[in-house]
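Expect chain and fold; see below:
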Amino acid sequence: MRSLYPKLFLLLSVFILALLPTSCADPAFRVHERLEKTLQQDLENMVAQIIKGSSKENVLDTPYFVIKDLREFHGDTAKIYSAYAEVDFYYLKDIKIAEKRKFRYDANRHYWDRYFKELFYYSTAP
């Protein structure tokens, strides 16, 4: 009579390999938490640069950001970047200029990568 251990080992190996890709992916709530943290840090850095370059008087009393677009990708599309975000930052007091930044979530490194930023004029803030 043959031992059941090789079959059991094979079955267990297949089961573990089947679960591996799903265990490496970040849950959506964790991706969103990391985005919020990244955006808050970016906003704090922008405000600090304005204060360092001129004064606190040029900064809004409550600087803020607005997430304009947030998408999650699934399947083959999500192997490298699993999410996308477009965010507008409002922090200047007397000048109606905001900053648009675009981010993508690197699924392998588990962080938000900022790859685009530009200043733009606005007429009314959201």
Observations:
- Residues 19-23 have pLDDT under 50 and may be disordered.
